[in-house]
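Customer escalation, tier 2.

The customer says the design service returned an amino acid string that "doesn't look like it belongs to this structure." They asked us to rerun it and document both sides in this ticket. The original structure tokens are below, unchanged.
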């Protein structure tokens, strides 16, 4: 059986996908635009933050990992505070990407989003590695 963490990750990824029912109700979409790349970057930013939140919360609860970010460390013992901070960070990063897009800085927005999402995924994978090591896998 899959872990609740896996279910959370899959549901987080699926939230970014449009539903077929909604797509059928809408009028035909305009020609594909380059904003799909930015949308993918924004979804990956949110997904990476959710992945980081879930692995950090699980690891802290299991006593395996600790919050390494000194700005977030104060919230590590309170899951609601940690979730608020991590999701607030995701919202701020999304706002930054959208602000860069509004200013015509598409390449900068994409580079920022990809870099931040990748670094957050690396941290999350480190958390998973530590959790699995503690579980003896």
């Amino acid at each position: 059986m899959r872990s609740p963490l896996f279910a959370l990750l899959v549901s987080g990824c699926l939230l970014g996908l449009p539903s077929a029912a909604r797509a059928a109700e809408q009028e035909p979409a305009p020609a594909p635009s380059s904003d799909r790349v930015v949308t993918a970057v924004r979804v990956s930013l949110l997904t990476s933050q959710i992945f980081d939140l879930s692995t950090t919360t699980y690891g802290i609860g299991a006593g395996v990992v600790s919050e390494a970010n000194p700005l977030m460390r104060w919230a590590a013992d309170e899951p609601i505070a940690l979730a608020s901070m991590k999701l607030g960070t995701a919202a701020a990063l999304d706002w930054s990407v959208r602000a860069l897009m509004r200013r015509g800085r598409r390449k900068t927005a994409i580079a920022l989003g990809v870099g931040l999402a990748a670094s957050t995924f690396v941290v999350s994978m480190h958390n998973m590695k530590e959790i699995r090591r503690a579980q003896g896998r």
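Tier 2 assessment: The sequence is consistent with the input. Residues 106-135 form the longest helix (30 residues). The chain has one domain: 4-13+39-135. Sent an explanation to the customer and offered a walkthrough call.
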